From TrEMBL:
Lineage: Bacteria, Pseudomonadati, Pseudomonadota, Alphaproteobacteria, Hyphomicrobiales
InterPro entries: DUF1403
Domain of life: Bacteria
Designated name of the protein: DUF1403 family protein
Length: 318
């Protein structure tokens, strides 16, 4: 089970003490936090899918708040899980934000920054760039990912997103994708999207003729420090969540041999790979009644939780 050294937690400053730090110090702290997270990622645990999707949900909830929406994590989960996959547009603008972050968590890392995938995720974030913008964006990201260090990767992702007129959620999404690519992770881990970062994404785009200029409201040093601290904070939060889900997954796997339902092993796998499952979902030919009985048994055994708090349209997860 992953644990974070006490010294590393103490090394992550709060907003009040950040002014007394320099960029090099914060780069070391962020690097140590990412190294600790990298050890978790490389274990490739069975529950890693649920872990990444739970982080995606947190990122989407923050994105919704930043967009002035009222949907919390429960409402976002409902919007996506209670909608047919073939009818994704009916999830609404907030639900599309969750689909964007779920895409980051689920798609193979080497597919995230292709033009095709960028077009899809930008549509989910509410943008409709033309082919020329998509091509320029993909080329910019490809050049950045080819040789930049970790600090330059983070700040470069933000700068590229702002240069193309995209907001803070897209900036965070691109930064997370580039970090995963640089570290060779099979799947990206949603990190920065759930962080509120001083000066991050707070620039105001301004058009001068045909050139998009960006007016920063903070000096670059302060923004860079804020970004590094946010990454360190996000990495520690992800590690803490991994430890919590590992305990829950161990409980689920421990009771799995007691389950008598024919497709119980498939249900267990789905609980380990996703944030949550709707009780009415069709799984391996199981009836709604049979699936509900199985979930009731898992709740009784303390292996899963009912997440909706409703008597109907119930949702279960680790």
């Amino acid at each position: 089970m992953a644990t974070v050294p006490a010294w590393l937690r103490r090394a992550v400053p709060d907003a009040q003490s950040l002014a007394g730090k320099d960029v090099a110090d914060m780069a070391l702290v962020a690097g140590a936090a990412i190294a600790a997270l990298d050890a978790v990622v490389r274990r490739q645990e069975r529950w890693a899918g649920a872990w990444r999707q739970r982080l995606a949900l947190s990122a989407a909830a923050v994105a919704a708040r930043q967009a002035g929406r009222v949907e919390d994590e429960s409402a976002l989960r409902d919007a996506v899980l209670l909608t047919r996959p073939s009818d994704f547009l009916s999830v609404g603008p907030a639900g599309l934000l969750l689909l964007a972050w779920r895409r980051l968590a689920a798609r193979p890392g080497d597919e995230l920054l292709t033009e095709k995938n960028l077009a899809a995720v930008l549509e989910e974030f509410g943008y409709a760039p033309d082919d020329e913008v998509l091509g320029d964006l993909a080329n910019d990201l490809r050049r950045l990912g080819a040789g930049a260090g970790m600090v330059a990767t983070l700040t470069g992702a933000i700068a590229i997103a702002e240069r193309h007129g995209f907001g803070r959620s897209v900036s965070a999404w691109l930064a997370d994708a580039l970090v995963a690519q640089r570290l060779g992770w099979a799947h990206a881990v949603p990190l920065l999207g759930a962080e509120v970062i001083a000066g991050f994404g707070a620039s105001r785009p301004r058009r001068s003729g045909t050139v998009l200029a960006v007016v920063s409201i903070e000096d670059e040093g302060t923004r860079t420090k804020s970004l590094l601290v946010a990454q360190a904070r996000a990495a520690l939060r992800a590690i803490d969540l991994s430890a919590e889900l590992e305990r829950r997954a161990d409980r689920l796997l421990g009771v799995a041999p007691k389950l008598r339902a024919k497709a119980a092993d498939i249900v267990v796998d789905k609980l380990l790979t996703d944030d949550a499952i709707v009780a009415s979902k069709k799984i391996a030919g199981m009836s709604d009644r049979g699936l509900r009985r199985l979930f009731d048994r898992l709740v009784e055994l303390g292996a899963v939780r009912e997440l909706s708090g409703r008597p109907t349209f119930r949702i279960y997860g680790l």
